[in-house]
Amino acid sequence: MNTCPCGSGTELDLCCGRYFETLTAPTAEALMRSRYSAHALGKGQYLSDTLSAKERADFDVAEFEAAFEQHKWVGLEIRETAGGGETDDTGTVEFVARYKDGSGPAIHHERSNFIREEGRWVFDGAVFNPKAPPRQVEKVGRNEPCPCGSGKKYKKCCGA
């Protein structure tokens, strides 16, 4: 069995491999997984064909194929998906891809944007190393009611 590089545990032909010819992944996440598999397998033309028109201008298949041997992709973790369903027109997928190169183990962390062009999902740019929004911490004064709901002042309850 030839397991799909995307980490689904499914055979390649039943997973990402079926999109290599049709270019019609049903969701943004499925397209992202198939693009990861294409990176792992050296399918530069598929990577080019699944770019939006504006992104395609900056991609060189020959350059990708020349650099292919320098990276060994070893794992994919999907962190978050927003939109990108079968009835959506836009979606984002945040992921971490692990690989090895001449310097040793490395990671690629990205939040990818996907859109529909001519009825099919395509990659439309990304934010590299996205940061989570800052946490909002509410400070409680000593003499304010305790946020636990006990009815006591904070200093006599959880702040003691």
Give the N-terminus to C-terminus distance in angstroms.
Answer: 61 Å
Oligomer classification: single chain
Please tally the helical runs, counting DSSP H or I stretches of 4 or more residues: 5
Helix coverage percent: 10-25%
pLDDT averaged residue by residue: 95
What is the global morphology?
A: elongated
The total beta strand count reads 4
Order of helices and strands: HHHHHEEEE
% residues in beta strands: 25-35%
Given helix and strand content, the structural type is alpha+beta
Major beta sheet, specifics? 4 strands, antiparallel
Estimated radius of gyration: 22 Å
Low-confidence stretches: none
Strand numbers in spatial order across the main sheet: 1-2-3-4
Description of the molecule:
- This protein is α+β, with helices and mostly antiparallel strands and 160 residues long.
- The chain contains five helices and four strands, in the order αααααββββ.
- A four-stranded antiparallel sheet has the order 1-2-3-4.
- A hairpin with a 2-residue loop joins β2 and β3 (104-117).
- The longest helix is centred in the first third of the chain and has 14 residues, at 28-41.
- The mean pLDDT is 95.
Could you provide a short overview of the structure?
It is built from 5 helices and 4 strands, in the order αααααββββ. A hairpin with a 2-residue loop joins strand 3 and strand 4.
